[in-house]
Amino acid sequence: MPRWLGLDYGHKRIGVAVGDTAGAVVSPVAVIPAEPSAGALARIADLAEQYHAAGIVVGWPLNMDDSEGPQAKACRAAAARLATACGLDVRLWDERLSSFQADTTLAGKLTRRKRKARQDAVAAAVMLEDFLARGGPDLAPRPSDPSD
């Protein structure tokens, strides 16, 4: 049962979660700075090795009409750089509303500061759980696939 890392890419932070294809457990594991990008790529590669990940899924914030906006294009480009840097199977997964779900999950449980610090990793876990539950490794595009 291969493990996958899930990433919620942002301009400032990247949330990281880990889960397996059996879908038994998905856990938020870290929030790392997005800059410098070389440092972020190295940290992600280290986490993939630490968790023996077979692949990495990057949250892809498509517009509600399924088109790629600027942030979705940036995530696709980051995923392509990550695939080159780590040599793992890297996929994209629609992450619309994962941050909203993370906020809902954390509401009333933490102070605002602590909630903000955890939100990106929880959003990554929400997205990864959806990816694994829906057969993402077989359905999700690679960043090099042409966009629709």
Summarize the structure.
This protein is of the alpha/beta class. The chain contains 5 helices and 5 strands, in the order βββαβαβααα.
Write the layout of secondary structure elements.
Elements: E1 3-9, E2 13-20, E3 26-33, H1 37-50, E4 53-60, H2 70-86, E5 89-94, H3 98-106, H4 112-133, H5 136-139
Parallel strand pairs: 1-4, 4-5
Antiparallel strand pairs: 1-2, 2-3
Helix pairs in contact: 1-2, 3-4
**Which class in CATH terms?**
Alpha Beta
And the CATH topology? Nucleotidyltransferase, domain 5
Mean pLDDT, to the nearest integer, reads 84
Please mark out the parts with pLDDT under 50 across 5 or more consecutive residues, or reply none: none
Distance separating the two termini: 31 Å
CATH architecture: 2-Layer Sandwich
Number of distinct beta strands: 5
Helix content: 40-55%
Radius of gyration: 14 Å
Largest sheet data: 5 strands, mixed
